[in-house]
Amino acid sequence: MSVFPRPLGAILFDLDGVLTDTAEAHYRAWKALADSIGVPFDHAANERLKGVDRMGSLDLIIGDRPGFDAARRAELAALKNGWYLEEITHFTPEELFPGARTVLEEARAAGLKLALASASRNAPLLLDRLGIAGFFDAVADPAAVAAGKPAPDIFLAAAAATGSSPALCLGVEDAAAGVAAIRAAGMASLGIGSPAILPADRVIPTIGDFRLGDYLAG
């Protein structure tokens, strides 16, 4: 039995892979970092980082190699972030996925609250570069939550920031870890991508395939 349509008070979006694609920018920054420390890194390794925060990603890249204490890891994370910021500085509204802006406009017109639940600490900058910051009532701060995805913390923080109960939220994600976080938060989940890898309540190929009337009870 489908959980949709249903009453909704807020939609909580992941950013990368849902509204835009920063994957290649992240890949180039992580690749440059890995090359600088002599660690093999390719697109397959990059896939393992999907939905994982910066320090968690660095831990996956370095593993248990010796010589990387906490201070060194913090230094490397800052270095990678600098390279990534150089990449996204060039983003414009043209980098929004087709249909993404329409989804945000229609949700706002329907009176729904919108929040961002991204693992990226650079999300506010990216929203500005994409020209969509004004649509969002809240941007959950990944630095302020105890645990990253697949823990529910970031989605619960986003829901609280909109004043909506989890039961009245729809979480939108493109990563399995993100979908797990939404479900753990007690929210309805929408996956963007392949149903073979996303255990969401419903999965659609792209954000452009989203039709609000399919999810929001009239």
UniProtKB/TrEMBL annotation:
Instruction: Give the Gene Ontology MF terms in alphabetical order.
Output: beta-phosphoglucomutase activity; magnesium ion binding; sugar-phosphatase activity
Instruction: Please give the InterPro entries that the UniProt record associates with this protein.
Output: B-phosphoglucomutase_hydrolase, Beta-PGM, HAD-like_sf, HAD-like_SPP, HAD-SF_hydro_IA, HAD_sf, PGP-like_dom2
Task: State whether keyword Repeat applies.
Answer: no
Q: What is its EC number?
A: 5.4.2.6
List the keywords (alphabetical). Answer: Isomerase
Q: What class of enzyme is it?
A: isomerase
Query: One GO BP annotation here?
Result: carbohydrate metabolic process
> Does this UniProt record's set of keywords contain Nucleus?
no
- What SUPFAM superfamilies does its record include? HAD-like
Cross-referenced Pfam families: Hydrolase
Family from the record: Belongs to the HAD-like hydrolase superfamily. CbbY/CbbZ/Gph/YieH family.
Q: Tell me the NCBIfam families matching this sequence.
A: bPGM, HAD-SF-IA-v3, PGMB-YQAB-SF
Q: What is this protein called?
A: Beta-phosphoglucomutase
Give the organism's phylogenetic lineage: unclassified sequences, metagenomes, ecological metagenomes
